[in-house]
Amino acid sequence: MRRSTALAHLDAPLAALPLRAKSLLVTMFGDAIAPHGGTVWLGGLIALAAPFGINERSVRTTVFRLAAEGWLESGQVGRRSHYSITESGRRRFEAAFRRIYAGDTPAWRGDWCLVIEGPELARERRKALETELGWLGFGRFAPGVLAHPGVDDATVSAALQGLGVAGQVLTLRTAPGAVAFDAPLPALVRQAWDLDRLESDYRAFLARFRPVLQAMQGRADADPERSFVVRTLLIHEYRRVTLRDPQLPPELLPAGWSGAAARTLTRNLYALTQQAAEAHLRATLDTPDGPLPPAAAYFHERFGGIAG
User: Fold this and answer.
1) Among 113, 118, 129, 237, which has the minimal tally of Cβ within 10 Å of its Cβ?
2) What is the mean pLDDT of residues 271-289?
3) What is the rounded CA–CA span in Å between residue 277 and residue 257?
């Protein structure tokens, strides 16, 4: 792909990141377009994707596929086409981005959420359940027993209802310290979650983005297009790691866990680039109803709160 000057001048590890049109457009819709109402002219989206080397044909093909998969819906005004995030697409974005932009993790009380599969649960539904709960960060502690120390009951209940298995599993919330495990807890944690791989991925993320943060901290001004490119690539790469992270409390993580440093870096670089990136969005996008509307209030609550 041929990339713009704004991207080509970034540090080599970042400029060389492999980008797939579909995955990147999902990041752009979730990170940048959803907070501004979720609707964009196709021409504006093409212009927004151009600095990443994604050409017009790729954008058109990708949004058509996302519409077919239920993420987007299309509309037309005269000869101009626009795309909007569907309600189901918005729910999917919100589920993912609640984890990506989470504030500080509440202190862990020592309790666990346990989901125990019933014997009548069909194989197909068992697999779907394990996939869905894996998405929420659950790990397998024993055959038929999935566990997580932090997820809230409402999220688990919604997942079970959505899968239609609420009557075929038992969900328990233990009292702090009430569960005794046969194996030492650190060994169970490493068995249930691949923390070594996550640690490696977080270290690679930090190696890519630390030089970018340092370079941008030393600039007196911020180029809007460059800031948008950096912010988008930051979230694009961070989400690829953090959505596989069970987000365990510090008590259950290895000493020196790189996930904490990655989150701090992401918050700092996001805050550093967001104002100029928003200026680029306003200059590039409009909607069928007029100029791009201001970002919703929740945008400013990302990572526990970012400035204007």
Assistant:
1) 118
2) 95
3) 30
For residue 146, the cross-strand partners are: 115, 140
Q: Which helix (H) or strand (E) holds 277?
A: helix 258-284
Helix pair 42-49, 56-68: axis angle to 10 deg: 120
Q: Retrieve residue 54's tokens.
A: 């994604």
How far is the C-alpha of 48 from the C-alpha of 306, rounded, in Å?
Answer: 23
Is residue 19 within 8 Å of residue 25, measured between CB atoms? no
| Start-to-end Cα distance in the chain | 34
Rounded Cα distance, 286 and 281, in Å? 9
Buried b (16+ CB within 10 A) or exposed e, 13-28: ebeeeebebbebbbbb
Say whether pLDDT at 22 is over 90.
yes
DSSP 168: G
Residue 76 main-chain phi, psi, to 5 deg: -140, 135
Structural domain boundaries in the chain? 113-173, 193-285
Taking alpha carbons only, the member of 182, 184, 183, 172 closest to residue 146 is: 172
Contact indicator for 148, 139 with CB cutoff of 8 Å: yes
| Interatomic CA distance for residues 126 and 108, integer angstroms | 29
Q: What is the pTM of this model?
A: 0.88
- 102-134 pLDDT per residue, tens: 877 778 888 889 999 988 888 888 889 998 898
Structure tokens at 193: 């979650």
The residue among 192, 185, 190, 178 whose CA lies nearest residue 143 is 192
Tell me the C-alpha distance between 191 and 268, whole Å: 33
Strand order in the sheet with 113-117: 139-142, 145-148, 113-117, 169-173
From the number of C-beta atoms within 10 Å of its C-beta (0-12, 13-18, 19+), residue 7 rates as buried
